[in-house]
Amino acid sequence: DLDTAEEAYAALEEADKLQHIMKIREIPSIEGRNAELFVFRRRWQEAEIVLLQAGLIYRAIKLNIRLFRWERALELALKYKVYVDMVLAYRHKYLAQIKQDETLQRFMQIGQDVEVEWETIKAKIAQEKERERQRPGAYTNGM
Questions:
Q1: Which residues contact 86 (CB under 8 A, 6 or more apart)?
Q2: What is the pLDDT of residues 8-28, one digit of tens each?
Q3: What count of other Cβ atoms lies within 10 Å of the Cβ of residue 108?
Q4: Which backbone phi and psi does 86 adopt, to 5 degrees?
Q5: What angle do helix axes 30-40 and 15-25 make, rounded to 10 degrees?
Q6: Who's near 15: CB < 8 A, 6+ residues apart?
C-alpha cells in the first residue's frame, strides 16, 4: 500500500524513498505503478516484463534508459519499431554530459540512419503519456 509506505518513509525521514513513492503515485496505469515498485525493490527484469506485457513499450524503453541499459533500450526500440530516435537522443545526451564519444558499434551504425529531433521526440512522449492516462483503470490522482 503506497499510503502506508509513504507514512513509514516520512516517519523514518527517508526523503529519497519518500520522494520515489510519491512519484510512483503519479503514474496513471496500475502496470506502470507495479513496475516502478519492482524498480524500487531493484527487480528491474520483473519491472520490464510487467511493462511489456501491458503494452507499455515507451515505459519499458525509458526504464532501460534510466538504468543505463542502453543496448537493451535500443533492442526493444528496434524490436517494436518505436522510439529508436529517443534512445539515440538520450544516449547522445548522456555521452555529451560525460564528455565521451560513442563506442558501441550498433549505436554508431543506427545513428547514421536515424534522424534525431528533440521536438518530435517530446511530442511522441507526450502522446504516449496521454495514451497511458486514457487506459482503462488509469488513475489520475487529481491530475
A1: 61, 62, 65, 77, 121, 124, 125
A2: 555 556 666 666 666 767 888
A3: 11
A4: -65, -45
A5: 160
A6: none
CA angle 128, 130, 136 (to 5 degrees): 105
Q: What is the DSSP letter of 28?
A: -
pLDDT digits (tens, 9 = 90+) for 83-122: 999 999 999 999 999 999 999 999 999 999 999 999 999 9
Long-range contacts of 60-64 (CB under 8 A, 24+ apart): 61/86, 61/87, 62/86, 63/35, 63/39
DSSP per residue, 61-128 = HHHHHHTT-HHHHHHHHHHHT--HHHHHHHHHHHHHHTT-----HHHHHHHHH----HHHHHHHHHHH
In whole angstroms, what is the distance from residue 77 CA to residue 34 CA? 22
* pLDDT 10s digits, 50-79: 999 999 999 999 999 999 999 999 999 999
C-alpha distances in Å from residue 87, one per residue of 20, 22, 60, 109, 133: 24, 26, 12, 14, 23
